[in-house]
């Protein structure tokens, strides 16, 4: 019976816990870290609510201590992916028909479980499996994920309220159906919250989902899946299938019932799937909605009036927190000649104090990069800069993979704004600085706007208000998330809806109503209260 208008209250952002020495949250997390480190887990596929363990497995390792194996996960093949498609299709009608407030309740409950009994478990899995420090893990796997769940439930309610006008004699209604097929979701390694959001946003809107997590984020993503199940998610609504990307493409993306694709990851992979969908277009039941948040080459641009202390703080935290592996991480900076000496001196002294190492040592700001492939890729960029006459490595540059995949916070000074590390995404703790002559501000703003294919995040630093106005305008399409006198990372759900355009994605802002609209398909219903019975129009009367 649905006989009342239910109301979800406007959510609050989940408060970030401090984890001070002696606090209960720190003690609980330490115990959980130890427990997870010494007791490897077997991670199954979860298809149609059933756990499936396969012989084909892969190891889950600590990036900062690659000899420590945290567990093994089953790797789905084509047979299991086909089962996932069938499970998602089988669950679809019942799930879509479930009253929206009941669907939303499952995810609101998941948020409360996450911030309660799952908090330490989720955070420890993210710290160990993705090499995040306590704070980075708390803001990702706990607070941001809880925010996604609570804010999306609220936004969905606000969307459902929107109705068309009805003139006298008619009642016009709009129904917000789910898509006519399942949603395929592929998530990246770097945020547990993104995986949770990629699957829960379409599911909340009534869709069923097939989820391929990243092979280097399986542990935290598995606990996200367990969390949803404990909160009451019915079988088959989200199907968890770690697998190879090509197999997912062959079975899931190629299926005629794929109605939506929710992706976060690199531009290359999204482009590949887009092409595949294009080639398949004649065989889909409906036009698949393609939503992708992709790569970035995020900038910090300083005006000569910038405050040096806050600029340097933003350069350091914006570029090196989570080892520069945030899609929003600053990786190029434009600094005026008049400030460079002061900026360089302060940056050198601040970076010298940064500690790198194991996630369990709370004095470390930085930990390891995600895996060997990434480590080698970052190292190759540093070596390229070292060998080039157009650049100089002025801070860091050291790489050591003997215990974990550690890369020092590295600053490259480039002699041209088009130097390779100024324009290509590296996805590691490497910041390239271009020092511009003060009188070439406009030309350098133009270079910042046009140098790369990306437009994800960017920050400007200036005290001069007219400069803020001019720079904001000059860079209006250079970033989907734009910061003034702040670092370009750390977007918060409900405060800065996240996403970029150009080569950085479709800009369907994660954690906002805009994103939810993509998983809904309206049906407009017109009902005539007393239908007409006369064919002729009044004007047809003879004079
Ligand atoms: P990635 O593109 O390598 O992988 C993302 C996902 O795609 C993984 O699950 C991976 O296994 C899968 N994949 C890889 N090849 C595939 C294929 N051929 N077919 C199907 N799936 C395939 O990205 P990553 O290394 O996990 O994450 C880093 C990238 O993600 C960076 O480019 C970063 O900028 C981007 N990112 C963007 C945002 C954003 O909001 N714009 C957020 C986080 C990460």
Automatic annotation (TrEMBL):
Substrates-to-products reaction catalysed: L-glutamate 5-semialdehyde + NAD(+) + H2O = L-glutamate + NADH + 2 H(+)
Pathway: Amino-acid degradation; L-proline degradation into L-glutamate; L-glutamate from L-proline: step 2/2
GO biological process: L-proline catabolic process to L-glutamate
InterPro entries per UniProt: Ald_DH/histidinol_DH, Ald_DH_C, Ald_DH_CS_CYS, Ald_DH_N, Aldehyde_DH_dom, P5CDH/ALDH4A1, Proline_metab_enzyme
Keywords, alphabetical: NAD, Oxidoreductase, Proline metabolism
Residues of the Aldehyde dehydrogenase domain: 57-513
Domain of life: Bacteria
E.C. number(s) listed in UniProt: 1.2.1.88
Single GO MF descriptor: L-glutamate gamma-semialdehyde dehydrogenase activity
Leading EC class: oxidoreductase
Pfam families registered for this protein in UniProt: Aldedh
Residues of the signal peptide: none
Gene Ontology cellular component annotations, sorted alphabetically: cytoplasmic side of plasma membrane
Similarity remark: Belongs to the aldehyde dehydrogenase family.
Name of protein: L-glutamate gamma-semialdehyde dehydrogenase
Species annotation: Propionivibrio dicarboxylicus
